[in-house]
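Aim 2 progress. For Amino acid ABC transporter membrane protein 1, PAAT family, the working sequence is reproduced below.
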Amino acid sequence: MLRSSSRERGPLWRDPAFRALLVQGILLLALVAFIVMIVANTLANLEARGITTGFGFLNERAGFSIPQTLIAYSGDSTYGRTFLVGLLNTLLVSAMGIVAATLIGFLVGIARLSPNWLLARLATAYVEIFRNIPLLVQILFWYFAVLQALPSPRESLSLMEVVFLNVRGLVLPDPQAQPGFAATPLALLVAIAATWWLVRFARRRQAATGQALPVFKLGALLLIGLPAAAFLVTGMPLDWSIPALKGFNFQGGITVIPELMALWLALSIYTASFIAEIVRSGIQSVPQGQVEAAKALSLPAGIILRKVVIPQAMRVIVPQLTSQHLNLIKNSSLATAIGYPDLVAVFSGTALNQTGQAIEIVAMTMAVYLLINLVVSALMNLYNARTLLKER
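Predicted structure tokens for this construct:
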């Protein structure tokens, strides 16, 4: 009698894979049912209180002013326009903070490892002071104790009578583009593309021949020289609106409001103290033998740091640096404490109070911060993937 080569299948409920799938299905159904119950309960409560839902309020007139706008805005603008103004203000302070915090953090982190005793101690004091004071307190300090203590517009601190600093902010000359100015940004884009190609060509050339090109000098020449040449050839199509004191305030120019300055300073200095420690730990993670080998080749200290230490340390630095950049973006919402018109202040604050559309406005605000952080995280992860060691 032939015996079957395969074992007979037992009851389905004894199959571990089936049981795992069944449990996951039950949990998924329970989660969906819970969400449906929450949504239905919320809609019922809103209807009982006569509160309408939906995003139609975005087309309604806002009726309030905003002290800093990067796009055209007036009291007759809609709540949708208010959302865009707050979003752009949030992106502005976040981008400025990320750039400044990263530069300061790298400098302080490298300074902490300096053989100069005084420089290393000053860097250590910076880290220990600013990372142990709450960010909100630092924002209030820069705004109330420093910027609000500046003189009135009539007694402004001036630089060459074109830049003025007073209690109402920093007043700068305003560049006004004239016909033909479009050639300058176009030349800058061409210079960026040429510099990118130059970097890739230099890497391939060095890998093939061992000869290095002065990429930094050539790139700086392209990025500065080409736009400058286009600017001069087109007849310098740029005019300047110089601020002038008229009455009790300045007319003309660009005014950087003190709320933006205080928030930017606090975010940059606070986040930089954490980035400095990340940079220090990343540099110290590089094996000392790498540095000693570079010194044995008589390489200068600057080249050792740029070409040997930092590239290897970036593999440790980037993941933690990403977290600090994301924290800075989220911490920018503390701008409400000093009245900076970011997304939280003008949209989740004033617009919410006037419309009462709490669910829609809070959901939009949360979605925006989530989207911004996901984009930043994706870009940093892409860079991190390029710097990882590739196994052979």
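The mean pLDDT is 87. This observation will guide construct design in the next reporting period.
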